[in-house]
Amino acid sequence: MLRLKHISKKLGSFQLADISMDIPSGTYYVLLGRSGSGKTQLLELIAGLNKPDSGEIWLNDENITHKRIQQRKVGLVFQDYAIFPNMTVFGNIAFSLTKGKYDRKAVMERVTKIASELNILHLLDRSTHHLSGGEMQRVALARTLMISPELLLLDEPMASIDASLKDDIKRLFRRLNRQGLTIIHVTHDYREAVSLASRVGVIHNGKIIQEGTPDEVFRKPVNRFVARYAGIRNFYKVRFINENGVWKAVSHNNLLFVLSGNSYPGEGMLILRSDDIFINSESPGNQSVNTFKGIIKEILPSEYGVEITVDAGDTFYIDISADTFKNHSFKELSEVWINFAPEAVTALQGNI
SS3 for 237? Predict the structure, then answer.
């Protein structure tokens, strides 16, 4: 297990502030944040490239806060790979063992084994100058795995990879994790978190603002920042009211939302995922809860199929599949009905 206890580090005008987290062994943990949020700085503290101003770092019940990087059993793959250009692929992979107590035969056997597992055995005698991004990534990863790390740190590992190769690299990371390797993967890309993580942490301005499984974080974001990372576009400032024991929310444009929770004092914000909204050309009849009539303002292709923008007093962004779109006669400026369940609405209290 990796355990961070109240880690703080000041870096110029920026500061990592009181970060604590437990990452169980075998976890694929994705640390998600924008550029400048502190995610790479935190990775460097875990790796041992920098020391915290305060706090402790523990790995498998050993305090490694002040240990050198070579003593930590932690492997780090840099965003730019940090490949040695004057060495062959073999030389790069073998580098970490060449100054140790390993004989040439043992080094050769280990390099061959790891290169074979990463499908770069055929590259061992090549110069690194003409390798593709995906090949460079595998070479850097092989060099790191040579030290048999208990924890693998990946700094924006997809940043320089062609889109056509990303799925192969993801499969490789998943396989390493299934074999028991604990991975911390730093990225700004929400889709990487969804496709790889068993746990996600969102970092912003040097603080972890939400942590949990991908479903917990992206289905129930704690604030607008996390919600935007999850691709949510439907936000509504509201005031909360209680009518006969049922909690509701009134938007600034006087739309009335029925909520499934309880106790929402004052004002706040509602969050609604685009794929939780249903749209129909006809009125849903006697269903009145969270049902609104509106006008289609825009229809655009999206990565999920089709995005439909509806003005129903407030603006709603709705994602539907291409097949669903084909089965309806939705057109811009046409009248439609939208509805969603009270359980689909996430209510955030206070001034978000």
Answer: strand
Pairing type for strands 54-59 and 62-63 reads antiparallel
Token couple for 326 = 């084909």
> Do 19 and 4 form a contact (C-beta atoms < 8 A)?
yes
Place of tokens 């020391």: 51
| AA letter at 268 | G
Tokens of 57: 């770092």
Q: How far is CA 90 from the centre of its chain?
A: 33
Q: Shortest CA distance to 292 belongs to which of 267, 318, 269?
A: 318
Give the position of tokens 């600034």.
Answer: 252
Spell out the per-residue pLDDT of the chain, length 352, in tens.
999 999 999 999 999 999 999 999 999 999 999 989 999 999 999 999 999 999 999 999 999 999 998 889 999 998 877 888 889 999 999 987 766 667 788 889 999 999 999 999 999 999 988 888 888 889 999 999 998 999 999 999 988 788 778 888 899 999 999 999 999 999 998 889 989 999 999 999 999 999 999 989 988 888 888 988 888 999 999 999 999 889 999 999 999 999 987 778 788 999 999 999 999 998 877 667 899 999 999 999 988 799 999 999 999 999 999 999 999 989 999 999 999 999 999 888 654 4
Give the CATH class of 2-229: alpha beta
For the chain, domain boundaries: 2-229, 234-349
Angle, to 10 degrees, between the axis of helix 133-145 and the axis of helix 89-98? 20
Q: Among 2.60.290.11, 2.40.50.100, 3.40.50.1760, 3.30.70.20, what is the CATH number of 234-349?
A: 2.40.50.100
Query: Letter for the amino acid at 351?
Result: N
